[in-house]
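Board notes (copied after class):
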Amino acid sequence: MKKLGLALILLVFLTAGCGTTLKGETKEINASSLKIGLMPAADSAPILLAEQRGYFKELGLDVDIEIYLNAVNRQSALQTGQLDGAMTDLIAAVNNIQNGFDMKITTSTDGSFPFLVRKGFEEKKDITVGVMEVSVSNFLSDEYLKSKYNMKKIYIDEIPARLEMIKEGKVDMASIPEPMASMGELNGLEKRVFENKDHFMPEAMVFTARALKEKEQAIKLFHQAFDRAVDDIKRDDTLARDILIDKLQLDPRIRDMMVLPVYHHTRVPDEAYINKIVQWIEKVQGTDITVEYEDMTEGKFASQ
């Protein structure tokens, strides 16, 4: 798996490329291998830990993990067949399925999305907020900030670019996922954490229809390894902190600053929560979502 250096994350607005397929792979090897796209976020911890501890290999599964700083590039890799599955958010997933991309949500994931506040910010009603347009950051800005502020949203897709904007004081606040939010806090920015009042976070793992058809057993094993890693983290959450710092090559000083989510075993978001996401999308984007819950989710791999 490729590692992202701190300098890359904070200074360079690049994305990690996708892994290459080995020539001469047999169908049998392909059927037991998965290419997965992740973001540098807290919900990647169980997957990274499962890889580090060899849980995938113990199950006979070869998992190639790629980390993206830009969700648009990750989604493009998924849609062009470079990935079998990816960690995404429900807003993007619902939109893509509605627009005809054949994929399904196989499990919810658990992330943490604080807001960073620029230095010298004084409380006021009208603020600027850096978010990604069609994403969890936009959704959560409405969930957490709308009741208190009049927001002018500045759409910035790349996480490092959002970090730079808030560091330079060009926006008042920015939605930054952990552990990157703690990197901003380490550099003197205020980090605000809001309570999630729902049973789910608007994030998930999705797999393409082709992968679900051709690699069903591999996907089943992937979820089993995920659950095993969650068990480890539940016993000792320092495992999640250490794996995120190690695999993302972050400053170890943020280890205890990170606000981690409660990690759950594999489970699909329920219909009520998906409907909440759908209603927000319809209101914000002015579009009708006609795809049904059953067409967006595949629950047979989940343990809950």
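Comment from the instructor: The two ends are 29 Å apart (CA to CA). The domain at 115-192 is CATH 3.40.190.10 (D-Maltodextrin-Binding Protein; domain 2).
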